[in-house]
Write a structure and sequence with these properties.
The chain has one domain: Rossmann fold. The protein is an alpha/beta fold and 154 residues long. Helix 1 packs parallel to helix 4 and helix 2 runs parallel beside helix 3. It has 4 helices and 4 strands. Strands 2-1-3-4 form a 4-stranded parallel beta sheet, sandwiched between helices. 44% of the residues lie in helices and 19% in strands. It binds the ligand Cc1nc2c(=O)[nH]c(=O)nc-2n(C[C@H](O)[C@H](O)[C@H](O)CO)c1C. The site of ligand DLZ has 14 residues, from strand 3 and helix 3. Belongs to the DMRL synthase family. This is Riboflavin synthase. It is an enzyme of class 2 (transferase).
């Protein structure tokens, strides 16, 4: 049975973990989903590693980055940690990150988060369930998560 890991944080201002679980459940109803909530983004790599070590086939992390430079540096550290963890385990960690200053309207920020979580949760299922060519039909299509697709340059 396929197993997915969902890592989210208490720092986040939107319950993205619940959204990810709902989407994964809808896309892959028979799979097991394990959730692991940590205080913030810098705690996500170890949570993802533990889930992968426990047999998850892939993980999605739901991070929220504040507006300060310190927040941005924290995300850079997190991103490096998540990439290293993927290489060490040879498994995907789809990193969903919302930057609080991406848009200056909280309703738009919520819509952005929901769109980004939904699309990347589907990406995770496709990669884990259907493999490395599951997304190939979309290669070069300029897909975006959190806002309109940029579209292909023909
Ligand atoms: C500066 C900073 N910024 C963020 C952030 O933007 N988003 C977030 O989720 N967490 C942040 N944190 C907290 C760290 O990620 C971590 O939770 C603590 O350092 C405890 O290990 C810190 C310390």
């Amino acid at each position: 049975m396929r197993k997915y890991g969902v890592v989210d944080t208490t720092f986040s201002r939107i319950d993205m973990g619940s959204i990810a679980i709902k989407v994964i459940r809808a896309e892959d109803p028979d799979a097991e989903i394990i959730r692991y909530t940590v205080p913030g983004i810098k705690d996500m790599p170890v949570a993802a590693k533990r889930l992968l070590d426990e047999g998850c086939d892939g993980v999605i992390t739901l991070g929220w980055v504040g507006k300060s430079m310190l927040d941005k540096y924290s995300y850079l550290a997190t991103s490096i940690g998540l990439i290293i963890t993927q290489v060490l385990t040879s498994k995907h960690i789809i990193d969903v990150t919302v930057h609080e200053d991406e848009v200056n309207d909280e309703e738009k920020l919520k819509d952005l988060a929901i769109d980004r979580v939904t699309k990347h949760a589907k990406n995770l299922v496709m990669l884990v369930r259907d493999g490395r060519n599951a997304l190939t039909p979309y290669a070069g299509k300029g897909l975006r998560q959190g806002y309109e697709n940029a579209g292909p340059i023909d």
